[in-house]
Write a structure and sequence with these properties.
The complex is a heterodimer of chains A (114) and B (114). Chain A has 114 residues and is mostly beta strands. Chain A contains no helices and eleven strands. The model of chain A has no long low-confidence stretch (mean pLDDT 88). Helix content of chain B is 0%, strand content 51%. Chain B has no helices and eleven strands. The chains are: A mainly beta (114), B mainly beta (114). Chains A and B meet through strand 5, strand 9 and strand 10 of A and strand 5, strand 9 and strand 10 of B.
Amino acid sequence: SQELEQSPQSLIVQEGKNLTINCTSSKTLYGLYWYKQKYGEGLIFLMMLQKGGEEKSHEKITAKLDEKKQQSSLHITASQPSHAGIYLCGAPTKYGGSQGNLIFGKGTKLSVKP
Amino acid sequence: DTAVSQTPKYLVTQMGNDKSIKCEQNLGHDTMYWYKQDSKKFLKIMFSYNNKELIINETVPNRFSPKSPDKAHLNLHINSLELGDSAVYFCASSPPVPIQETQYFGPGTRLLVL
């Protein structure tokens, strides 16, 4: 069965610093979703990547999917306290995306020190 | 105008009780899901429903039963609650294939079984 491994498990950075979170799949990905979770707020969708080599950015967050579609990275530039939370990568287990269930990595807990 | 809502937000109950968690989505999506997030923050699929038909049923105990009175609702009923059922339960919904889009998550229900 497919598994997603995230690294690091937790990360503490000083405000203003850049950081990268990685997500590695045991099988070729049909797609890759990045979510952020804050306590009491559920999962907030950040970005979805589908094509090998694809890169998307939103505000100060950039996500990439490698050419082989087995690894994704999430990069935050000039981190702020509002970026703190748990970042989860998720992947559909069937082609066609959202109808199949998603599997998730175990998450990366990000703390940003002011 | 919440997209996916869950009630209650918190649920504290005794072992052996029966409880339900409600989920509603106003996005017009055809597929709804229940996920369980354990104490280690690992998020795993439990069920999904498409047009009132159960299409995914992971290895969860039969004490858990999803009930969908209509397309906008997928409630989770749990019989004979056990200590190990303590977790955060997330409801989600998504549009049908072939539209590839993310799943939208509710805020979660924090269940504590004493």
